[in-house]
Amino acid sequence: MKRALVTGGSGDIGAAIARRLAQEGLEVIIHGHTHPEAAERLAEELSQAGHRARSAAFDVADGAATRGALETILEEGPVQILVNNAGSHWDASFAGMSEEQWGQVRGASLDGFFNVTQPLTLPMARCRWGRIINLSSVAGVMGNPGQVNYAAAKSGLHGATQGLARELASRNITVNAVAPGIIEGGQSRESFGEASIQELVPMRRAGEPREVAALVVFLASEEAAYISGQIISIDGAMT
Predict the structure, then answer these.
(1) How confident is the model over 130-165, as pLDDT tens digits?
(2) Average pLDDT in the 166-187 region?
(3) How far is the C-alpha of 17 from the C-alpha of 229, rounded, in Å?
(4) For residue 186, pLDDT beyond 70
């Protein structure tokens, strides 16, 4: 049975991805940091439904803590599917942005990618099969006022995705990024009203977490074996 790790699995998108991967017959490790109890509840829910799932809690921006947690996970075998979904927002105008705001967002989205992915790469390469899927954002594709830190981190993730895809291609490991637009959930409800969504999104609706999950599950499948190094938007034609 292949093993999958979903970071940020306690949020709307991460939870939808974890559910779909479990339904595909994978053993799923659901990571949470800000809300570890939500990741634990989801793992319990999936386990009770007959799937193999468990939770893990660590701060992806903390390299030492992440390595320690991953060492424990790797004792049980390699992770063949990695979904880097953990991230952080701290919006502000660039002129008024603090160093802390810049660093925290970078740490969760970009440093977190390194801290989680690097220790898992060699064990995955030894399997000569793997899927790495990085969750980005429309902000990383086209930028967004008040989110220069977030856009910079996600744009950096695009470069990392494309570079790593070339490094690992000969090992039958694909590396792609998925860039959602406005997706239904607690965060989007706080940031966007219905009128704003109608104006910003040509499809005139927010996306659903299950739609993002469906794309991620496809990229994690055998059918997507020749797709690598791509930044795939799922944003209702915003970009």
Answers:
(1) 999 999 999 999 999 999 999 999 999 999 999 999
(2) 94
(3) 20
(4) no
3 in Cβ contact with 79 (< 8 Å): yes
| Sheet containing 173-180: order of strands | 53-57, 27-32, 3-6, 81-84, 130-135, 173-180, 231-234
Cβ atoms of residues 153 and 106 within 8 Å: yes
Question: Which of 188, 187, 167 shows the shortest CA–CA distance to 117?
Answer: 167
pLDDT surpassing 90 at residue 195: no
Domains and CATH numbers, the chain: 3-234 (3.40.50.720)
Token pair of 173 as six digits? 């490991």
Query: What percent of the chain shows pLDDT beyond 90?
Result: 92
Q: What is the Cα–Cα distance from 229 to 84, expressed in whole angstroms?
A: 15
- Sign of the CA dihedral with 65 first, then 71, 76, and 79 last: positive
Q: Which residues are catalytic?
A: 150
SS3 234: strand
